[in-house]
Design goal:
Blueprint (H helix, E strand, L loop, with lengths): L5 H8 L3 H8 L7 H13 L6 H8 L4 E6 L5 H16 L3 E6 L4 H13 L4 E4 L9 H8 L4 E4 L9 E5 L1 H14 L5 E5 L5 H16 L9 E3 L4 H14 L4 E4 L2 H14 L8 E5 L13 E4 L2 H16 L11 E4 L2 E3 L8
Parallel strand pairs: 1-2, 1-3, 3-4, 4-5, 5-11, 6-7, 6-8, 8-9, 9-10
Antiparallel strand pairs: 10-12
Helix pairs in contact: 1-2, 5-12, 8-9, 10-11
């Protein structure tokens, strides 16, 4: 069976090929009713854009570069699904690179992406990235750029993030309202934007309920598994918290493991909530309370912004957006004392 073409759609709907082409690209020049008609018909006949033909016509690669710290991370795998969902619908391929939390590797990834002549870049910064001169170089080359999840205030660009402050505030408030007062916060390296925003949410909740902030209850953890477990053992022994709020999938699982090894009953002796996208959170024993980030939606939104920049519906240096997408708190047995 031959693939459906833009000409086939135009003939079936009695439209010009240029109108169909613009409608499929989401062009502002085409009214909403016509776009809807074209998109619905294209979906019905399983139309798929031909990236090679498009790249020859437009002098573009029809490819988006994506750099994430680690694909194995549940958040990033879900975000990539969202990116690919949008890219596929709008006729783009996606090439994915991992920094593995290394600043040097991130720079090499950026250099490789530029060499591949992608049309734009989506990036979530590594745990070591403080200097963003490599991203400023991208902007100097006029390559469209969007940052997501882990971002930097040192660069002016479109950014898409979860509402980290509100999520952390809600998690800490939930623990306070359940009767906990000695709440530890185990988080990622301090230079990350997500760490700073979640710490602020944690501190603001303590302040609201007049609980003094104690720096010794805040523990920053790198990315080595042994480091996390040792840190949590020391925290339990020395600070003796009655609740722990962690900020990643890895830290949540490391914390669970440490508490089990120490024989600490959750939530009777210690309540526990994570900031995580673990798909198995409900299967843990006890089931894990968590702040869920809208990873798929973050990926979709970032990809839409980038494609709009590539297709010049927005200018990179004008009307910059930082889009915050709400999180969701899911209470399960690990923090439920009712």
């Amino acid at each position: 069976m031959e693939a459906v073409t833009i000409k086939d759609i135009a003939k079936a709907l009695n439209l010009s090929t240029s109108t169909v082409s613009r409608a499929l690209r989401g062009s502002y020049e085409i009214n909403a009713e016509t776009k809807k008609m074209v998109l619905e018909y294209a979906d019905k006949v399983n139309y798929s854009p031909n990236p090679i033909a498009l790249s020859l016509k437009e002098n573009k690669s029809r490819t988006i570069g994506v750099i994430v710290p680690e694909i194995a991370n549940n958040f990033f795998s879900q975000a990539i699904n969202g990116i690919e969902d949008v890219a596929n619908k709008r006729g783009y391929h996606v090439v994915i690179f991992q920094s593995h939390e290394s600043y040097e590797r991130e720079i090499k990834n950026v250099q490789h992406i530029i060499a591949r002549k992608v049309d734009g870049l989506l990036i979530s910064l590594s745990g070591q990235t403080e200097n963003v001169s490599h991203l400023l170089d991208i902007q100097a080359k006029k390559l469209p750029l969007v940052l997501f999840d882990r971002v930097s205030e040192k660069i002016e660009a479109h950014k898409v993030v979860a509402d980290n402050f509100d999520g952390a505030f809600k998690a800490t408030e939930h623990l306070i309202l359940s009767g906990r007062r000695r709440i530890a916060h185990v988080t990622s390296p301090s230079l990350l934007s997500i760490s700073q925003e979640r710490l602020m949410g944690y501190k603001t909740a303590l302040e609201k309920y007049q609980i003094p902030y104690d720096e010794s209850f805040v523990k920053y953890c790198g990315f080595e598994p042994e480091e996390a477990q040792k840190l949590i053992f020391n925290l339990i022994e020395n600070q003796k918290p009655d609740a722990i709020f962690t900020t990643s999938d890895r830290l949540a699982l490391d914390c669970f493991s440490a508490l089990k090894e120490l024989g600490i009953s959750v939530p009777d002796k210690l309540s526990f909530i994570g900031f995580t996208n673990l798909k198995v959170a409900h299967l843990l024993a006890p089931s894990l309370s968590t702040i869920v980030q809208p990873a798929f939606e973050i990926g979709q939104t970032a990809a839409e912004l980038l494609v709009d920049l590539i297709e010049k519906k927005q200018r990179n240096a004008e009307h910059l957006k930082t889009i915050k997408i709400p999180t969701e708190m899911v209470i399960r047995k690990s923090s439920d004392l009712s």
